[in-house]
Structures are given as structure tokens and as C-alpha cells.
Amino acid sequence: MTLLNVEDLKVTYATDDETVHAVNDVSFSIDEGVNYGLAGESGSGKSTVAEALLGLLPGNGTVEHGTIEFNGTDLTSLSAAERRDVLWEDIAYIPQSAMDSLDPVMSTGDQIAQAIHTHRNVTDAKARDRVRELFEIVGLDPDRIDDYPHEFSGGMRQRVTIAMALALEPDLIIADEPTTGLDVIVQDKIIDKILEIQERMDSSLLLITHEIGVIAETCDELSILYGGTVMEQGSVDNVLVNPTNPYTMGLKNSFPEIDEEDEDPVAIPGSPPNLNGEPTSCVFRDRCPFATDECATSHPDPVALPNRNHRSACHRVKEAAQMRQAADDPET
Ligand code: ATP
Ligand code: MG
Predict the structure, then answer these.
(1) How much is the ipTM here?
(2) pLDDT score at 204
(3) Burial grade of 158 (CB within 10 A; 0-12, 13-18, 19 or more)
(4) Contacts of 246 (CB under 8 A, 6+ apart)
(5) Tens digits of residue pLDDT in 136-153
(6) Which DSSP letter does residue 232 get?
(7) Three-class DSSP category at 71
(8) What ligand 1 atom has the least distance to the C-alpha of 96?
(9) Exposed (0-12), middle (13-18) or buried (19+): which is 90, by Cβ within 10 Å?
(10) Cβ distance 137 to 201 under 8 Å?
(11) Cα separation of 173 and 88, whole Å?
(12) Measured in angstroms, how far is the CA atom of residue 107 from the centroid of ligand 1?
């Protein structure tokens, strides 16, 4: 069963001097029980996708077109209040930098209790019991619910935000860069905890991160965004083990640990594209070693590849295997 279906989503931001085309015709869907990754470099549009589907875009952001169906309901047709109910009841959202945006002058337990009171008619004592239970679920000491954010480490504050998001047992957990800024050991613990909770609550997960290594470890399927467009998508096995898109190949070389290869990371040369116009060419062409004239004159849409659950947006997708081989092994 499809839980979330995003179709042809386009989002722009209006600024004083330009229109930023942040997300361009993005489509993907997440089935029940699936862990889905949204990957891409900084500025590729990951958070914008999440904010658009939750109705939380900043004031200068506009959904130009597209549908976002959750459990069969088009979220874009709901009023702000209706969407907020869906958000709290069914979708848990851990925003980027959530751990830094906890209220410094309210105890962590009160912040979570407040979220519960907004949506459930419960006594203070019941809400406190639930907060203690949530602390336990995320691996925090329930005797610390009266502590303030500054009394916790970064990893613990992130656990608090996870506890808050989980208060109402969601069908879908959306976590935006939940481990960024934490040290590697704490990162692993947080990811393990999210997975444990997701399994226990039988929820689906949308994990947003620039680290494809984290997605390789935790997700079943993913989409790779670049310049607000989907470059490649499908099962982790297809996309990350056998990428057909030069961008994915480059991204993989910057995270060699995915193949457990003992190689140094190689960053993709060049810088991300300018987003001040509708994409009329391949957005990656300036940095792509395989670009041809066609790549400069028409924008490739993601097309389905013969193996199941694999789509790639590249004019040269048919030659991808040879290109990959030649790039990996320049001697032959
Ligand atoms: P990061 O990995 O750094 O979090 P991201 O993939 O989440 O990046 P977004 O935050 O979605 O990227 O931003 C996509 C593009 O939209 C970027 O070019 C960004 O500068 C631009 N953008 C984001 N928010 C706004 C805004 N409020 N006004 C104008 N432009 C914006
Ligand atoms: Mg972001």
C-alpha cells in the first residue's frame, strides 16, 4: 500500500532579485513500512520537499504545482488547520536543526507535554506519564524530564526532539538531517534508535540526509536530488550499487565507504547550479564528465530502466555502464 505519493511537485521561493526554482517536478512514493531516503548535496532541495509536503514552507515559498497524497488524501487540498492535524496525528517531523530549536526556558518534559495537550484531551498527570514513557523509548533517563535543553548533550537533545515527534505514534516519520552535527558514535546510536522505534511503531521513514552512506545502511529505497530535480531513484541496491547517473556515480566516489572500498573520497569538481530559472538543460551538465550538446539543450526526465524500481534522468543513460567502467578503470 502506498502511504505517501508525491507527484510532479514544483516549489519556488521569491526573493528581492530572483525566483529560486528550488524543487522542479519531483515525484516519488513511499509504501507502508518502507524506509525511504532523500539524498543530495546542500541546496539540492531536500528540506524544501519536506516543508512543502508538511505545509511548512516559509512565507516566500510557493507550491507551483503537484499533488501530495498521504493515505489517499491530497494534502494540498486541506486547510492549514486540517493539515496540522494530519501532521501531528499521522506524520512525525524532526526538522533540520531541531535539537537547536528547543525552547531554552522550558523544561524538555513540559515541551513534549505541551505538544501532547494540544492534540489530546489528557490530564497533566497522564501527559507526564506519557513523557516519561517517551523518554524511555528514545533512551533517555525518565527521571530527567524536568531538565532544560542546556542540561543535555547534543545527542540527548536530538533524542528529546525525536521523543516529541513520536508523541502521537505516527504512520510516517520524517527526519531531516537527524545526525548532522553529532559525532560519529552518537550518529550511529541516533540512527539505530530511529530504526528501532520505526520498527516498533510499524511506521515508514523518510530520511533526509546529504550522507548517502547513512541511507545505504538504513533505507530500502531512495531518490537522489540535484538542483531541485530527481537525478536517480529506486531501490538502494539498484541506485547505490549500480548507479546509471553520472551524478550518483560522482556522489558515490565522495562516499567510498559505501562499497567498503579503502579509497580516498573524491569530491565532484565544480559548484551546484544556479536555480534562478526553469531547468531547460540537464542541471548537472557543467560538472558532468560525460555531457554532450544534447545535455545543454534539453532537460532529461527520469525514465524507468529495464530492471524493476530504478529510474534515472540522464540523456546518456544507455551508455552508463560503459561510462562507469571507463571512469572506474581508466587504464582499460
Ligand atoms: P541543506 O543540505 O543545506 O539542508 P537542502 O537540500 O535542504 O540543503 P533547501 O534548504 O531545500 O536545500 O534549499 C533549496 C534551495 O532553495 C537552495 O538554493 C536554497 O538557497 C533555496 N532556499 C531555501 N529556502 C529559501 C528561502 N526561504 N528563500 C529563498 N531561497 C531559499
Ligand atoms: Mg536541508
Answers:
(1) 0.99
(2) 94
(3) buried
(4) 284, 288, 289, 290, 314, 316, 320, 323
(5) 999 999 999 999 999 999
(6) E
(7) coil
(8) 4
(9) middle
(10) no
(11) 11
(12) 31
Torsion, Cα 39 229 204 214, to 10 degrees, reads: -10
63-94 pLDDT, tens digit each:
999 999 999 999 988 988 888 888 878 999 99
Ligand nearest to the CA of 48: 1
pLDDT of residue 84: 81
Ligand 1 pocket: which of 18, 47, 57 to mutate (most atoms within 8 A of CB): 47
The percent of the chain in helix, strand and coil, each rounded to the nearest 5, is 40, 25, 35
| Choice from 19, 26, 46 to test ligand 1 binding pocket (greatest atom count within 8 A of CB) | 46
- What are the structural domain ranges in the chain? 2-219, 234-332
Q: Which ligand is nearest to the CA of 39?
A: 1
- Answer yes or no: is the C-beta of 46 below 6 A from any ligand 1 atom: yes
Q: How many CB atoms lie within 10 A of CB 279?
A: 17
Rounded Cα gap, residues 269 and 135, in angstroms: 44
Give residue 217's identity as a one-letter amino acid code.
E
Share of the chain above pLDDT 90, in %: 69
Which amino acid, residue 90?
A: D
Q: Is the minimum distance from the CB of 96 to ligand 1 under 6 angstroms?
A: yes
CA of 149 to the centre of ligand 1 (A): 27
Over its C-alpha atoms, the chain yields an Rg (Å, rounded) of: 21
The residue ranking higher by pLDDT, 326 or 29, is 29
- What CATH architecture is 2-219? 3-Layer(aba) Sandwich (3.40)
| Cα-based distances in Å from 21 to 233, 257, 273, 280 | 20, 32, 11, 12
Q: What is the DSSP letter of 241?
A: I
DSSP state of 78: S
Residue 273 Cβ inside 6 Å of ligand 1? The answer reads: no
